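W.,

You were right to be curious about this one. When I first looked at the sequence I had no strong expectations either way, so I just let the prediction run and decided to look at it fresh. Below is the sequence, 365 residues in total, followed by the output.
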Amino acid sequence: MIRLQTYAVFSLLATITSVYYAFSSREQFYPAMVYLSTSKICFVLLLNTGLVAMCVAWQLVKRVFLGTLREAEVERLNEQSWREVVEILFAVTIFRQDFSVSFLAMVAALLLVKALHWLAQKRVEYIETTPSVPMLSHIRIVSFMLFLLVVDCLFLANSLGSLIQKREASVAIFFSFEYMILATSTVSTFVKYVFYVSDMLAEGQWENKAVYTFYLELISDLVHLSLYMLFFIAIFLNYGVPLHLIRELYETFRNFRIRISDYIRYRKVTSNMNERFPDATPDELDASDVTCIICREEMTTAKKLLCGHLFHVHCLRSWLQRQHTCPTCRAPIIPPDNGRAASAQQHGAQPGVQPGEILFIGLSF
């Protein structure tokens, strides 16, 4: 921040000097403006000052809504920035005929707005995993997400307006798509935050939170996949193969496919939980630790897994949204079919795990 302030001061002084020289030497407004726009040195100084002003505004927004960044947020910012810069460079090669000063300014603004979105997502993740969060932090993050949504809508409206006015393929397609993705991501993050607040007000007893969160992420991936496919087709038909979209399109499709398969697997496991997992008897509750390892609260009733560990039924259902292994011993939770269970009991094997069978089921959020 100190380096940026120093650089901003020197940039401002250099720009003021060049503007003063232009008006003092030309003595009239129009000749001075012509000189500033045609002189290469003055043009570079003005462009540099504009970029510095954007960076300073970004720092002010970050300071107002987020305060000091945590180490994890800085790491996320650095990792995403390098990858995004590379993708932007690929995009510039596609729209090279539209390259101009305004295009460069729009690209810089897009990168800065994307960085704010990464920080907002990381801050929401931090709030969700922190036991006690001050009310001021909630107010700031809600205001921040609303601010980002307004910015996304303004840039999106500007890009769509330019696209409609020109009535032909242009770089406005690129910015329209990018701000559509950012706007949908902001809405998804905000709804996820609303789920967290609702669960917090219910003192952590909202059993359907994990289910609704899963549906939200599934719908978000579907919307993003649809937008990526539409944009890929639009760019391919007008400019050629969009290399910068191939990785994002593949990752979005892969995540969506994984979520679909995991959802089918989850529904299969939880379809008849009362029948698949027996209730723990009072003797079993007394003989074991009555604290549920998932929610860290005492159990008066519990479900018993094949491995013998006990958990709340709603905690177990939420856990199955993320993992299909026991939280305590990491044994597979998936119960066997009736035929396999009977066969296993006849051979004296433990039900649900056949010799040499490896079960690996992961659900990534």
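Here's what jumped out at me. Strands lie at 303-304, 310-311. And, maybe more interesting for your project: The CA atoms of residues 15 and 45 lie 6 Å apart.

Coffee later to discuss?

I.
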